Amino acid sequence: MIKRIIQPIGAVLLALVIVGIPLWTVLVTAGKSQAEALTPDISLPHHWQLWTNISTVISQTRIGWAYLGSLFLLVPSVVIVLIIGSMASWVLARRKGKLVSVIYALGISGIILPPAVVTLVLLLRQLGLAGRPIGMICAYVGMYLSTVIFFVTGFVRTVPESLEEAARIDGAGPMRVFLKVILPLLRPVLATATILISLYVWNDVFYAFFVVGGRMDTLPLNLFTVASAGVHLNNWHLIFTYVLLMSVPIVVLFIVFQRSIISGITSGAVK
């Protein structure tokens, strides 16, 4: 009885420490003046000036263009990787054999093996895609396709094949079976994959810096430029305000898909 009470309380306290304190620090620092924010901490500001800091960030940085740049990379990357990954996962889940097992192992190897940035940039240069948004989108699709394959393949294996057989008896072809039978059932796991991939792409600064850095603004790249500028070195209140504005779309996306995230993770992990 005591164990049942202590475990949820411990989980909540751990979540507050790991997630709550950083979020609170960002929020209160974004609402402080420059003098108060010189040493970021969790104390409340004497006078909230969050809206003033937001106006300053919007007027003094290229956050608007950075938002457009991030969305321009995020939306196509997520859509393409979900379409290709879900279709590939359906085939891998229904086919049997050693060759399929090898292909599946290669497909999910990207989760463990990170792409080599030097090789990636050289390859994109050979293809004429370096420095272009299409090259960055292709890089994201290749990097995060393994995540979709891992989650969706496990989920499809839990779907009874009798549903597909009934659709085939009614005269449905492979594409129609996928679109009408399989795809609607994949909503929970696709919602989970959407959150994960969006989080990776939205916050990516490492690969974007080497592929499109200097040629296109994204939020992480623009934040790096703002934080590195001499005039902003001590303006922690503006930097944390930028971080707060940058986090809003991901938080909204999480709220929209929160009901599907847990079911997608648990179902997709089934092998």
UniProtKB/TrEMBL annotation:
Its membrane topology: Multi-pass membrane protein
ABC transmembrane type-1 domain residues: 67-257
Record's protein name: ABC transporter permease
Record's subcellular location: Cell membrane
Transmembrane portions of the chain: 12-31, 65-92, 99-122, 134-156, 177-202, 236-257
GO cellular component term of the entry, any: plasma membrane
Family per similarity comment: Belongs to the binding-protein-dependent transport system permease family.
One Gene Ontology biological process: transmembrane transport
Keywords: Cell membrane, Membrane, Transmembrane, Transmembrane helix, Transport
Pfam families referenced in this protein's UniProt entry, alphabetically: BPD_transp_1
Gene3D superfamilies linked to this entry: MetI-like
Gene name, Swiss-Prot/TrEMBL: msmG
